[in-house]
Amino acid sequence: MDSSNHWYGHAHILAEYCGLDPENPPRIDGVIQHGWTFVHGFGGGHNPPHGFAKYAWSDVCRRRGQAHGWRDYQVVGAPFLYLDRVLPPDPDAPEPEGTIWYPFHGTVDFEKVEGDHSDLLREIRETEDGPVTVCLYYVEYDQPEVRRHYEESGFRVICHGRRGQFWQGGDTDFLRRQLTELRRHKRVASNRLTTAIFYGAAIGLEPAVYGDPMVFVDARKEFDATDWLEHVYPELHGKTIDQPTAQRIALRELGADALMSPEELRIALGWQDIWLAQHEERTSA
């Protein structure tokens, strides 16, 4: 199995939805899209060979990928949306309030982000009404000089966990933490149009995208798109965004119309025989 299938607990979430052991998800002979991208659904380090399934979230990504010359797509919907089905809201939870803010982040592999965090904090204070939770990606959370800016701001500072690498060091409850936190808030905001914005908008939060977008250090041009995103998605940028419009776009980009039943998803991922064998074993015991 491609190790990126375990990032953020994706394979574990899908296994749970399919009625299999979420602690030990079966092998997937393909690559699951692990985050929202404005291209073909997969990052620069992913170029699966022909015949190796590309499990994209949405038909939008499939079309972009085919325009890129890629094939072997299977559209299954985002694991986050399956998790939203598996993990019902806490009926005793307090009413959502305030904003969860996601500063644009780098990756541990090759991309680092530079920007003025102090200016960003000032703009957040001037814009947001109510309590603010700042969620740092683990790359920035592990940098004391970056984390200190937010810890000294008076905002609540959190991290959803670690992505992991090569099946080691990842937090399989990453998306569970993220979904729980999103449900605690009324707004979700970032200085770039990123995965977290789509997640929040999809489940009904009011999104906002504003502030210095910051820059990748030595970024590859085809995966930066600092200015391009605002031209393509103007309705998803600004301090006040129409929530119904944002939700409609988010559900399209996350593949809400492609979500499958547990049986359908087991077949798509190659897990049906495993489930049948386990089901037969349980019923004959």
Sum this structure up briefly.
With 285 residues, this protein is α/β, with parallel strands linked by helices.
How are the SSEs ordered, and which strands pair?
Elements: H1 10-17, E1 30-32, E2 53-56, H2 59-67, E3 73-75, H3 79-86, E4 99-102, E5 112-114, H4 117-127, E6 132-135, H5 138-141, H6 144-151, E7 156-158, H7 174-183, E8 187-190, H8 195-202, E9 206-209, E10 215-217, H9 228-232, H10 243-254, H11 262-269, H12 272-284
Parallel strand pairs: 1-2, 2-3, 4-6, 4-8, 6-7, 8-9
Antiparallel strand pairs: 5-10
Give a description of the structure.
By secondary structure, the protein is α/β, with parallel strands linked by helices. The chain has two domains: 3-86 and 255-284, no CATH class; 99-253, Rossmann fold. Helix content is 36%, strand content 12%. It has helices spanning 10-17, 59-67, 79-86, 117-127, 138-141, 144-151, 174-183, 195-202, 228-232, 243-254, 262-269, 272-284, and strands spanning 30-32, 53-56, 73-75, 99-102, 112-114, 132-135, 156-158, 187-190, 206-209, 215-217. A five-stranded parallel sheet has the order 7-6-4-8-9, sandwiched between helices. Helix 8 (195-202) links the parallel strand 8 and strand 9. Helix 1 packs across helix 3 and helix 8 (195-202) packs across helix 10. 39% of the residues are buried. The mean pLDDT is 88.
Overall pLDDT score: 88
| Percent helix | 25-40%
How big is the Rg? 19 Å
How many β-strands, per DSSP?
10
* Total separate domains: 2
- What CATH architecture of the largest domain do you see? 3-Layer(aba) Sandwich
Tell me the number of helical segments per DSSP (H or I, 4 or more residues long).
12
Q: What name is given to the CATH topology of the largest domain?
A: Rossmann fold
Measure the end-to-end span.
Answer: 30 Å
Give the strand order, joined by hyphens, for the main sheet. 7-6-4-8-9
Q: How would you classify the helix and strand content by structural class?
A: alpha/beta
In sequence order, what are the helices and strands, one letter per element?
A: HEEHEHEEHEHHEHEHEEHHHH
Major pleated sheet: 5 strands, parallel
- Level-1 CATH class name of the largest domain: Alpha Beta
Dominant shape = globular
Contiguous runs where pLDDT drops below 50 for at least 5 residues: none
Beta-strand content: 5-15%
